[in-house]
Design brief:
alpha/beta, EC 4.4.1.1, 10 strands, cytoplasm, Rossmann fold, Cys_Synth/Cystath_Beta-Synth, lyase, four-stranded parallel β-sheet, globular, disordered N terminus
Length: 386
């Protein structure tokens, strides 16, 4: 971040390290009883957080019952840190601790557009290690405030591509651990069960009229959530299909469609938390059955329609998934197919009042949500997708 006089400050782990000078690497004898005591206590604290956190709600989006299609939204905004990324951050911290990568007094560093960093700052504070988030300068002010509230530091970059390099370099300079959600998300999550999001969804649907969903719709930032769902349904031998909704300025759709692991996007996503400029290591195309490319204006129209339908504000990534889920509802209803669909409320809309709920921001971005809002209202009123 920029300090007095416009000079870039080097966020460090304490005031003496903010000069930008190299910081000696903190090494640990992993056989040292003091380290093992610290490690056991850190793992206990992270696991205890899961025990204190009740499961998130599965909400119904109101649709006419005669359509024969039920749409549910898994409300991940009710986690202690307010987003789907709470699950991921917990898994990444356990993974890093048990691998011996996270050590006492050494900073944990992440490249993030916001929500993951908010959750990771929470767990870093929980176990008493410093945390630094390397983020695009366009990240919402509220997310930055939440990171700092949890004791973390925000380190801004102008180019989204620079996040990866800067986070790794910062870890090298400070002797910290680059936790790297974009590589380790799919590895750190126990996709076979152990109270992951997929297992939770199926448990909550058990007494519904269509307990095995026809489709689960996810959005991709790291790709960890879609990988968890895709692996779990195959492991459990369900017939559910996985659809991933991808925003503008993201390469995932093109990479998936053309089987191109080297696909890239020139610009950063306007939908915070999802969409990436490169094919991330944690994004598993083989675990996905379908993808949809969603205009950013459609994502915004969908979150505003969600507020009208259930009285809840949600972030833009929720709108990206909801737009795709509603299109699948329309397809199924038009074909006379019955069943259920599950999508996600990824985080609360209060973090984006200056973006997705601001008409001034939409005008600044050149986004016209009118035709997309009309498409949704027409569909919900008539059952026909325009």
């Amino acid at each position: 971040m920029l300090g007095a006089g416009g000079h870039r400050e080097e966020p460090g782990v304490n005031s003496t390290q903010q000069s930008g000078g190299p910081v000696p690497t903190v090494d640990v004898d992993r056989s040292d009883p003091a380290y093992r005591t610290w490690l056991k206590e850190a793992v206990r604290k992270v696991q205890a957080d899961a025990n204190r956190s009740a499961d998130t709600h599965l909400l119904r989006f109101p649709l006419p019952e005669e359509w024969g299609v039920d749409l549910y939204l898994k409300d991940e905004s009710t986690h202690p840190t307010g987003s789907l990324k709470h699950r991921l951050a917990r898994s990444l911290f356990l993974y890093g601790l048990c691998n011996g990568w996270i050590r006492p007094e050494s900073p944990v560093i992440e490249a993030s557009s916001g929500s993951t960093a908010v959750s990771e700052a929470y767990f870093a504070q929980l176990i008493g290690v410093p945390f630094i988030a390397v983020m695009p300068r366009t990240t919402s002010r509220e997310k930055c405030r939440l990171i700092e509230f949890r004791g973390g530091r925000c380190h801004f970059v102008d180019d989204p591509w620079a996040m990866y390099i800067e986070a790794a370099a910062l870890a090298e300079r400070t002797g910290g651990h680059y936790i790297d959600q974009f590589t380790y998300a799919e590895r750190a999550t126990d996709w076979r069960g152990n109270n992951n999001i997929a297992e939770s969804v199926y448990s909550q649907l058990r007494n519904e009229r269509f307990p095995e969903p026809v489709w689960i719709v996810a959005t991709a930032g790291t790709g960890g959530t879609s990988a968890t769902f895709g692996r779990y349904v195959r492991y459990m031998q369900y017939d559910t299909r996985i659809c991933v909704a991808d925003p503008e300025n993201s390469c995932f759709f093109d990479g998936w469609r053309h089987h191109d692991p080297g696909a890239t996007s020139e610009f950063g996503s306007r939908i915070e938390g999802i969409g990436r400029p490169r094919m991330e290591p944690s994004f598993l195309p083989g675990a996905i059955d379908r993808m949809m490319k969603v205009p950013d204006a459609a994502s915004v129209a969908a979150v505003r329609a969600l507020e009208q339908a259930i009285g809840r504000k949600a972030g833009g990534s929720t709108g990206t998934g909801l737009w795709s889920a509603l299109k699948i509802v329309a397809e199924m209803a038009g074909e006379g197919r019955r069943g259920s669909i599950v999508s996600l409320i990824c985080d609360p809309g209060e973090r984006y009042l200056d973006k997705y709920y601001s008409d001034a921001w939409l005008a600044q971005q050149g986004l016209d949500i009118t035709p997309y809002a009309l498409a949704i209202s027409t569909f919900l009123a008539t059952g026909r997708w325009p």
